[in-house]
Amino acid sequence: MQRILVIEDEFFVAAHIEHVLEGEGVEVIGPVGSLQEAIVLARNEMVDGALLDVNIDGGRIDDVAEILAQRRVPFVFVTAYGRDNLPPAHREAAVVDKPFKDEDLIREVRRFRVN
């Protein structure tokens, strides 16, 4: 079973992402709504990929993205902010724009299986 870390601080968005992924047979790690917890999970959990909001609980996701990149864990930003607001080192990463379509999330999560 594919394990995906979900970092999203908006309750209803996080719950919807979790519902969509579980419908695809994915084990969701999280959703996580705090940067501190996100950093711990990014460092310690064995996951196949991650969905990251850019701003979590008033902070930026940059450190989490860097940890995942160092571990070679693929990730996608799920955000309403433009590419210019992504962490500078990861501006070329995949993005799913909010509001999103369920099939866009599913497509990106399926790509993690290929990597």
Automatic annotation (TrEMBL):
SUPFAM superfamilies: CheY-like. The modification 4-aspartylphosphate is found at D53. Residues 3-113 form the Response regulatory domain. InterPro entries: CheY-like_superfamily (IPR011006), Sig_transdc_resp-reg_receiver (IPR001789). Pfam families: Response_reg. GO terms for biological process: phosphorelay signal transduction system. It comes from the Bacteria. Keywords: Phosphoprotein. This is CheY chemotaxis protein or a CheY-like REC (Receiver) domain. It comes from Rhodoblastus acidophilus (Rhodopseudomonas acidophila).
